[in-house]
Amino acid sequence: PPILAIETSCDDTAAAVWAGGALRSSVVAGQRVHEGFGGVVPEHASRAHERLVVPTVQAALREGGVAMGDLGAVAVTVGPGLAGSLLVGLSAAKGVALGAGLPLVGVNHLEGHVYSVFVEPPRPPLPFLCLTVSGGHTLLTLVEEGFRHTELGRTRDDAAGEAFDKVAKLLGLPYPGGPHVDRLAARGDADFLDLPSPRLAGKHGERPLFDLSFSGLKTAVRYWIADLGGDRAAVLERHRADVCASFQRTVVDALVDAVRDAVRRTGVRAVAVVGGVSANSGLRAAVERAGRADGFATFVPDRAHSVDNAAMIAVTAAFKLAAGHADGLDLGAHPALAL
Ligand code: ATP
Ligand code: FE
């Protein structure tokens, strides 16, 4: 029976319907209320979710051709995310579950990103290596049967998406900056700036297992701008695309390098790249190129399923239900949930 999924962890109100092993509908109502604030304002986000959640659920049901009475379960994101935003989705999901007498399934947003590669074919075999690159996380994990995730590496400071957004802000681009950097990088010179690699050098010149640090990269761009002096605005204007290209290549090289290392060390030849930053053209192309060169299969979700959406929550819930897992109406929100 069809599953309705609701996702409200950050600033997108999303709902999706999954049935018969396929996606029936996926609706994302972007909140325009954060423009001009340079980031998400939590209070504005939860209010916008309150306004949008019912119409978004209705649109998902309508587009999916499913009536409330046909549903078999309701899935909802329980964390990580903004507490107030999570609670709006959770309350809506409980309302539907209680009203229609349906089982409730709580889903970890990060698990949702990981399983977003199962929304559409081609789907990876288990186990697979998963690079999760989003606005708040940068993780490399081994994903095995039974929702087992073994961490192989992570960022020690900023997430990759955060680095994109912060550098974009330094360059005077709107929030979220990732897509803008992506667009400008396509026509910039990646050799313009020599930026420090986010891969950390360890003892004896040996790298610690896949650890990354993005904060130095952002600082390097900040210093470059600070050193421009008097005609800063003009130079910045002329070289904005070049800085974007240099920055993007440095990030992509480090991420792809870590992935290649992980394939070599684990022998696992299936790699998924998920999360908002997996929408990046440079990263998508580089991962596919590395896969062809090193002989591993790559799985990158459609861009619509890279950034936040409810389809990934629905497919994760389908896996959980199939494994016999369901939650009660006492399900709570967990703003700091880990993978
Ligand atoms: P998390 O999933 O870690 O809780 P989140 O849900 O806010 O955080 P996502 O929606 O997965 O994050 O991803 C949003 C991030 O992806 C933003 O930082 C955004 O700039 C980045 N992003 C989106 N598209 C692109 C792109 N084409 N290139 C680079 N970054 C991008
Ligand atoms: Fe996300």
Proportion of beta-strand residues: 15-25%
Which shape, going by the Cα principal axes? globular
**Average pLDDT value?**
94
E-strand count: 10
Q: How large is the count of helical segments?
A: 10
Structure write-up:
With 339 residues, the chain is of the alpha/beta class. Helix content is 42%, strand content 18%. It contains 10 helices and 10 strands. The strands form 2 sheets. It has a 5-stranded mixed sheet, sandwiched between helices. Strands 8-7-6-9-10 form a 5-stranded mixed sheet, sandwiched between helices. Helix 5 (178-185) crosses helix 7 (232-266). The longest helix has 35 residues, at 232-266. Bound molecules: adenosine-5'-triphosphate (ATP) and fe (iii) ion. Belongs to the KAE1 / TsaD family. This is tRNA N6-adenosine threonylcarbamoyltransferase. It catalyses: L-threonylcarbamoyladenylate + adenosine(37) in tRNA = N(6)-L-threonylcarbamoyladenosine(37) in tRNA + AMP + H(+). InterPro entries: ATPase_NBD, Gcp-like_dom, KAE1/TsaD, TsaD.
